[in-house]
């Protein structure tokens, strides 16, 4: 999914200097962003209070939206570099096309994982016809310097492993959780998991003390380490935890995001993750003028133009709280 903000601002992220090295409970509120003509998202990362969680650098939560009489998601072809996109649905379908020739409908609890590497472009849209409701999350993972120029590729996994406890099913989307590993290709120590809690469930989820974590609420009423987390909000948890207490008043859906604090400093602007002003300028030029990002075939519409670069210099810095 694209960052469609026409006033795109740079995000300076990364570095261990601002990682909270102990357990905390920091509730992040979203910023509402219009995505295309008919989809509004709640943006949790980057946030004024927190730029990254491990290598997770971008989190949008959308829906549930009733799109029975609407076109639904319509995101024109747009570029990415230096990151992975993770598409995750609770309701509806998203049709993915990319410049590699991939054409894939992603359905609830299926992993759509696109690794941009040096350059890729893609589009996302609700199929015709489509389900009544659309509800999901779109996330980006920053690639480390050693892998950020890999050849682009797309993965689609329908059978993901789970970790279970009474009243809890955790589907491992990316990385590792409690000894269970996702088939999705990860480039840093990371975890992404979908947590389904039954009404009245109380559970403790094992964590890695060297990871930092956050929990995104997708639906229902739940408490994370004693903190009520409403749908569309995210609780940052810091590091130093060996387990996470969870409690659900109703059926609830959460997403656990975590990983080793991302050591490198990055520049994230529009749909690009780079390391310098020059890289971002070159990527923007190549999208507007050159063949680097390829062509998305089959989308009914034009490409998404890049916004103007900001007047201030883009500099990589450490994490900002």
TrEMBL record:
PANTHER family: PIRIN (PTHR13903:SF8), PIRIN-RELATED (PTHR13903). Gene3D superfamilies: Jelly Rolls (2.60.120.10). Residues 41-141 form the Pirin N-terminal domain. SUPFAM superfamilies: RmlC-like cupins. This is Pirin family protein. Residues 193-293 form the Pirin C-terminal domain. Belongs to the pirin family. InterPro entries: Pirin, Pirin_C_dom, Pirin_N_dom, RmlC-like_jellyroll, RmlC_Cupin_sf.
